[in-house]
Design brief:
Layout: H1 2-21, H2 28-36, H3 39-50, H4 52-59, H5 72-82, H6 95-103, H7 106-122, H8 151-189, E1 191-196, E2 199-204, E3 213-217, E4 225-237, H9 239-242, E5 247-250, E6 257-258, E7 263-275, H10 281-289, H11 293-301, H12 306-319, H13 326-331, H14 342-380, H15 390-411, H16 415-433, E8 436-438, H17 441-446, E9 452-455, E10 467-473, E11 476-478, H18 489-501, E12 508-510, E13 520-522, H19 525-536, H20 541-547, E14 555-557, E15 565-571, E16 577-584, H21 585-590, E17 592-596, E18 602-604, H22 607-623, E19 626-636, H23 647-650, E20 654-663, H24 670-679, E21 683-687, H25 692-702, E22 712-715, H26 716-723, H27 732-738, E23 742-746, H28 750-762, E24 771-775, H29 781-786, E25 789-793, H30 799-804, E26 807-809, H31 814-856, H32 863-882, H33 905-933, H34 949-968, H35 986-1005, H36 1017-1039, H37 1046-1057, H38 1060-1066, H39 1074-1107, H40 1117-1125, H41 1138-1145, H42 1148-1156, H43 1166-1174, H44 1182-1185, H45 1190-1197
Parallel strand pairs: 9-21, 9-24, 17-20, 21-23, 22-23, 24-25, 25-26
Antiparallel strand pairs: 1-2, 1-3, 3-7, 4-5, 4-6, 4-7, 8-26, 10-11, 10-20, 12-13, 14-15, 15-16, 16-19, 17-18, 19-20
Length: 1198
Amino acid sequence: MGDMTNSDFYTKNQSNEDNHAGGFGISLMELRALMEMRGTEAVVKIQEDYGGTEGLCQRLNTSPTEGLAGDATDLDKRKEVYGLNLIPPKKPKTFLQLVWEALQDVTLIILEIAALISLGLSFYQPPGEGSEVCGAAAAGAEDEGEAEAGWIEGAAILLSVACVVIVTAFNDWSKEKQFRGLQSRIEQEQKFQVVRGSQVIQLPVADILVGDIAQIKYGDLLPADGVLIQGNDLKIDESSLTGESDHVKKNADKDPMLLSGTHVMEGSGRMVVTAVGVNSQTGIIFTLLGAGEGEEEKKEKKVKKQDGAAAMEMQPLKSAEGGETDEKEKKKPNVSKKEKSVLQGKLTKLAVQIGKAGLVMSAITVIILVLYFAVDNFVLQERVWMTECTPIYIQYFVKFFIIGVTVLVVAVPEGLPLAVTISLAYSVKKMMKDNNLVRHLDACETMGNATAICSDKTGTLTTNRMTVVQCYVGDVHYKEIPDPGALSAKTLDTLVNSISINSAYTSKILPPDKEGGLPKQVGNKTECGLLGLILELKRDYQTIRNQIPEEKLYKVYTFNSVRKSMSTVIKLPDGSFRMYSKGASEIVLKKCSRIMSDVGEARVFRPRDRDEMVKKVIEPMACDGLRTICVAYRDFPADPEPNWEDENNILSDLTAICVVGIEDPVRPEVPDAILRCQRAGITVRMVTGDNINTARAIAIKCGIIQPGEDFLCIDGKEFNRRIRNEKGEVEQERIDKVWPKLRVLARSSPTDKHTLVKGIIDSTIGQRQVVAVTGDGTNDGPALKKADVGFAMGIAGTDVAKEASDIILTDDNFSSIVKAVMWGRNVYDSISKFLQFQLTVNVVAVIVAFTGACITQDSPLKAVQMLWVNLIMDTFASLALATEPPTESLLMRKPYGRDKALISSTMTKNILGHGIYQLVIIFTLLFAGEQIFDIDSGRHAPLHSPPSEHYTIIFNTFVMMQLFNEINARKIHGERNVFDGIFRNPIFCSIVFGTFAIQIVIVQFGGKPFSCSPLDLEKWMWCVFLGLGELVWGQVISTIPNSKLRFLRDAGRLTRKDEMPEDDQHEDQEEIDHAERELRRGQILWFRGLNRIQTQIRVVNAFRSSLYEGLEKPESRSSIHNFMTHPEFRIEDSTPNIPLIDDTDVDDEARKNLASQPTSPNKNNNAIDSGINLTTDTSKSAASSSPGSPLHSLETSL
């Protein structure tokens, strides 16, 4: 950051002397001072000092209409004087810093200390020759002059520690580098519209310079500071700078100051850029904060620069490092975006548990070894501790300590975080090719658990190329575009003017890029469709726009989600005003009182004409899947001038010109993608602003709804009526009645979308739903943030939506979401594969080291060998198994869900099965190996004795078994063919062969450091043969059906249920979702209260039947439900007793229904639903709801 401040200082000095020479009439410092001002004082300052915005533009040598000329020398001069639009990023960590971080791992530190002690002691020669006195301890130590080689073991441990550290550091470094690459790509993707040489062009944000004229519109994130030249109805959200949540109105004569990093929430306009990069308001804050920590927090608070958010996302990955870091974990603030991602939560817990187990094992190993040695030497052989023998004894103790640490090293799965990181980083890289730009790493894996997708219609399911295909004009409904001659001249003129003027001037149709292609639509696609209609009517919109440029527009009511229409007022030559309007047909037609007839005269348009038109014109269009837009106008007198702020009166009494039906064809690949989602157990729901008939027609084309299914298609109004109580509050159990069947939500507002997403996520029916949402508009921000995974549209999406999202779809295509699901599931599976492999090795290595050490006082696997095994199974295996490419078969199963154990019963079966095989082989070799192979026994070898063939065979066989088991680990769902698709993953093949080659080198030439003695071919063949046995044994294991192994289910679950309370309570309280905590408290209350409730319900029922003889059964269930959904009574999903409450209130007819309902996982909610739909929502009987009624008091007492 230092160099930047210098250059900054240099720019300041230079700008004061040079810039007038440079031909600019205003210096950098003056501009900075100007941008500090707000509101009216700024207006006054600009007027007085610079002669208004025109004067300001002149001093900056730019034209308010044509922008910068764009010649290179001028641009360079501007860069020199006013700086670039870049905020220098934080310096990345150097490789050495990363190495230092990797060294902080507790296990590694313990190993280093052990190795250093071992080294020190090996150089210590005991004085004198009286060493026989120390007994067995020294025997054989001097054999064959091998004592000098004592240092090798310590050195080898240090070397392998160095290996592990460098690999970890390199991984972190490449991850960081990849991330920066991704970062810069995100930044390059962000473009902004500026005017240069009177052409509107899209410019990367970094290339914007002071003096540029930028066009701003709804949904933009402002890239630089500027002064508004002209604006329509502009409202800005400045909360990122000021913390004020209210939107600030901007206009050229009251408050023209626009600041970088703020969001345009409404309207449009043009501004002249006055400060970029470090000199903009955002930049100044960055500079003040300086580099380092401040920046990180600031990034969180302010314009969430993706980098910051991403860096924060990465942290939980690191914290899973090994089991010992749980102390660190407690201190760490909770830095995840939403709750911790599913997988990370499960993995951290697992790593901690394994780590604890490993610690216990290693401690026991050391204690047993020390006691055995002491008892053997000083009690049984009754030796005395002699001072000159102390170093020798200490050497023994150090050896025991090293063995203990090795057990710990093997037990702790430090490969877990590595596997997660590699798998995620690899997936993210590959997902770029599949048009998914991942902004938050964990989103990638959450996507694999998705159970519901709420998708937009326009642009995601459809192509977003709007074309007008039908229109109703002059009392005739044309099924295709009419010939211009068929319309009266007056109607045609009004229509053409209305569309040309009353649409954003940024929307236009350009000639196609390549011969024979479709014309390019730029800007708002609906408007482009309407402009296309003008071109088809052989007229040109540009000439009209040239006659009435944007500056001459008198007032603009821009489109927003509340108005659902857009209107523009122009002043006619005679001083009167005309307003053109367009918008959703049912909304605009309600405001029309006249309509243009076939001769172009306005005639009266009564409500009953409107109803007829809706039936005859709008509904048939909508049923063809067309969006209907109504175009209208209204004339106002010059005197008195209307009150433009009184919107309701202005937007009424309109004259309809025509209604057009715009087709937005479904993307060809979408129906297939949706089918694949449904097969994968994911429900796709469409949430759109279109009218219900259009939405239903498109949903059928996409395959979201199949004829004959039991589903709901409702609009926003009906949705709100169903989910809100009398007070207008949203109630969770009302949402629970709606969402399971809801497939299409039409005419929905952004709040509806947010309510729906929140409702599905908070629902307690079945398992916790994981919801993905797509959005492109600014108003989708809240829903994208609330969802488990938010997808923003890369092309049509506004900056605000991208800011709130987790993944950006660079091609705006729904089928890319399916790819994301595939990658997400693949990540989950890769981690499971790795776990299955790693835990097998862990179990075996720990047991072997432990029992070996206890029975023979020496671990059959030496420290260095253990570290090599650790390297194979951690680093290499995580690389090999985490980079498996996804296959289509991933989409053929249901999502795992949040509460499924990480280790499935099949995996437990594999782990135990292979563990047993390996242990049998190794113990056979350990205790009978010398007879089988006819070699010297390696057991009870004295200190520093040369490596024995016996132990080398054990080590080699062990590694061979791991290698072949790695191939077994490729499949975790009990598939037979483990070689399936193995050559599609070159990394896997190269790692397996590479490991094999290194193993040969270690065994044949490793010698003393690796405690290996070379083996001949026959023994090698035996080792490989025993390894191959793994593959055969794998087939045997997969033949055993899981159902035979009841205990396995509990084994898998063990890791989840038993440790939950103790683990989670100490770990960050925040990590448990609030609802979860309520749930635990609730469960106890729930079970305790259940019996009482049942008796009370019986009382209520008896009471009711006597009360309502002959009356219809009332809907009293809502109040019972109410009491159930108070947080204390949140029901755990698995309680089988829920139906008790439902059934008691549902009439017999519904009971029959319940019984006959199919219970496929996708329809698991029908059972509850069918009961609900029988009782009408509105007819709450008076007795049940009036507070005075005896029934009510009884229920409240519940």
